[in-house]
Amino acid sequence: MRVPNRLSRLGVVAAAVVAAAVVVAPATAAAKTTKTIKIGVDLTYNNTAFWTAYISYEQQYAKQYHVKLLGPLLAQANASLQNTQIEDLVNEGAKAVIINPETATSLVPAINYAAKHHVQLISVDTIVGKGHVYMVVRASNLIYGEDACAYFAKNITSGYVIDLEGDLTSSNGADRTNGFNQCMQENAPKITVLSDPTVWVAATATSDTQTALDAYGSDLKGIYDQYSGPDPAAVQAVAAKGLTGKVSIIGDDGVSYEMCYINSGLMAGAQSQPANLYAQGAVAYAVDAAKGVKLKVGQKAIGAPTLQDVSFLGDTNLGDPIVGPLVTKTAETFNAMSIAGAPGNFTSIPVTNTALWGNVYGAAHGGDCSGVQAPSGVTLTAP
User: Does residue 314 come out as left (phi exceeding 0), alpha (psi in the -120 to 50 range) or beta?
Assistant: First the structure.
């Protein structure tokens, strides 16, 4: 998933940010749908603020596109269960199925079963590395990893950074980790990276963060949370050590409480993984799949400028490669040595940008700091 150059990337980021504040005009045949279509939904998790927001947006776009959602069913990281659930959705009459795969290679039985029944799958957030799907709706996670690295490389000169990895059998965990590690080797060779696999389990990430803080103290200069779940515990643990502002925490997702933390000086930044565009793309492309629409590389996309082929583990599927920008307290320019597929030169988006999906969602749900626990002595301020 290659973004050709800095200018094209900045243009895509700007478009994605603006799209977060408005309902994007339908770009596919879904816009012409008037008859209700049954679309199945099967997700791996619903245990983070990101997925809660995604489901809310998915329900919104289902109404817009005249879709009856079957689900979401939750596989809870059980690949066998997820295959069975997808088969059940097909048997219930789903004309297409939106999936968030447990791993990149775990859904071959379900893909084959659906194909026999002339039902296609739309993969959201994760690239499929084995089997054909109609569309992949996902941002470049290589860019996520590189952006976190670029922040550390610019602002930290020595010491330790802990990388709280996701599941390395998923395209997201693998890409974020590979992008981060390669970039750190190129741009910050004097910083020691502590790699801690968490398999998307926040409790594991919390324990690993505390262990690193206990072992390295003020020599721990950065924490890369590859997902938003560990952020609150990391913020509290850093504050308990008296290291707020001295340990840079970079998160992934762009959920509302990350916007609150960034504006309050408790986190350095977070990737804004656009839950709204993921949901819109998933529903719209599912309708296209149900209607038999043939899409191809170069056609207008919903999140990215055009559709592109995306590859993982040697398999290629058509994708809408949305760019998720890095959000920081104020806009910063980064000029890191880039890695293949993730240009190192970019400008972050200030957290005060009201069009960021996390701010939009937060404003509709009591504010970005609603329900957020502040460390002792810290006053939370929403953007």
Answer: left
The count of domains in the chain is 2
137/296 Cα distance (integer angstroms): 14
Whole-angstrom Cα distance, residue 55 to residue 52?
5
Enumerate the β-bridge partners of residue 248.
222
Express each pLDDT in 58-87 by its tens digit.
999 999 999 999 999 999 889 999 999 999
314 and 267 fall within a common domain:
no
| Local structure of residue 26 (DSSP, 8 states) | P
Q: Which of 109, 112, 105, 51 is nearest to 76 (CA)?
A: 51
**b/e code 56-87 from CB counts within 10 Å (16+ = b):** ebbeebbeebebebbbbbbbebebeebbbbbb
Distance CA 37, CA 62 (A): 9
> Phi and psi for 104 in degrees, rounded to 5?
-70, -20
Q: Which domain holds residue 312?
A: 6-139+274-322
Range scoring the smallest mean pLDDT among 25-34, 40-49, 218-227: 25-34
pLDDT at 33: 57
Tabulate helix, strand, coil % of the chain (nearest 5).
40, 25, 40
Determine the distance from the C-alpha atom of residue 78 to the mean position of all C-alpha atoms in its chain, rounded to a whole number. 20
CA distances from 194 to 55, 88, 182 (A): 33, 42, 14
Residues 187 and 202 in one domain: yes
28 and 130 inside one domain: yes
Same domain, 242 and 345: yes
Per the domain annotation, does 352 fall within a domain? yes
